[in-house]
Amino acid sequence: MKKVTVAIIGNGNISPIYLENLTNLFRDIVTVKGVCDLIPERSARAAENWDIPCIYETMYDAFRDEEIEIILNLTTPKQHYGVAIEALRYGKHTHSEKPMSVNLDDAQELLSLSREKGLLVGVAPDTFMGAGIQTCRKLIDEGYIGQPIGCAAYMTGHGHESWHPDPEFYYEAGGGPMLDMGPYYVTALLNLLGPVKSLTGISKRMFKTRTITSKEKYGKVIPVEVDTHVNGLMEFANGAVGSIIMSFDMWKSEHPCIEIYGSEGTIQVPDPNGFGGVVKAQRGNEPFTEIPFSHVYSGNCRGLAVADMAMALRTGRKHRANSELAYHALEIMLGFGRAYESGQFYSLKSSCERPEPMPTGIREGELD
User: Fold this and answer.
1) In the beta sheet, which residues pair with residue 200?
2) Are residue 156 and residue 284 in the same domain, yes or no?
3) Residue 336 maps to a domain
4) pLDDT tens per residue across span 235-246
5) 145 shares its domain with 23
6) Long-range CB contact pairs, 50-59, < 8 A, 24+
7) Quick check: 93 and 119 in contact, CB under 8 A?
8) d(Cα 143, Cα 273) in Å, to the nearest integer?
9) Containing structural domain, residue 117
10) Model-level pTM greater than 0.90?
11) Is residue 342 assigned to a domain?
12) How many domains does the chain have?
């Protein structure tokens, strides 16, 4: 198969793991030709560390490069739409870090333009394609816990200001726990249980400001522009009901990340912010036992969805972290706030198919 050529826009905190995996683990599927960042030193460092041949002065230089097929958009959330829409206008397929956009209007424009031009739009996360959640998916599909009847998901902590070097954007428009961490949890649930039919929720911000205590900006006080505690209820199209809590306002919790409840048992799903973790399941009155992985990709394999998109481009099949999945996840995440503002249940206008499960029997570095 002819390798697919990629350019990366944004060389910040998340980019090293993408560069590592795309230039090594998935080197037989993609090749990274160039990098670009508003801070030139970041691009220079990335190019030196991973032997990238091109440094683009602007993202438009990457868009005009005829060899580039996929633009990998690793900018901050508020920039995702602007980079992706311009890449599409230049005829490039695009894969962005999560979320797809910070609002539904921009996300809908991305969908419309990609369909008009026949281009693929992919959006993180790709952790649902990893060994942990794929093992849970296999258990559900094979009826291990019977008919799924419900779920619960918890992401609780006290925010990013104590450890992240640049935590400001987590509290700006497009940030907050739901749009930051929610994509991992909501996408995992969509993969396991399918689309959501309706939802409601309560959305709050408990602190008006945050004080950064990480080393780089210690003592800086930043305003909180987004809700930082979201509690939601979901009705899935298959009849299952679920609850979700996403919070930057809680100090400690011992809830499991995700549990899936079935008519015959329960699955404890590992942290959807990772590819591996521990899968536990039980049936009837039996205790929980650890379930061995049925799939590969248990390490930090960010970039897996980029390789999957590349395979889709060459084979014509659908890629898994696709725009319909990402848009439906975004509508769900924003829907909790809309439901709270209206005081009513919110009916989802979008839907999506469950992504195809990952194949078993492959090795790391392979997709099909």
Assistant:
1) 233
2) yes
3) no
4) 999 999 999 999
5) no
6) 50/19, 50/20, 50/23, 51/23, 52/19, 52/23, 54/7, 56/7, 59/9, 59/83, 59/86, 59/87
7) yes
8) 25
9) 4-123
10) yes
11) no
12) 2
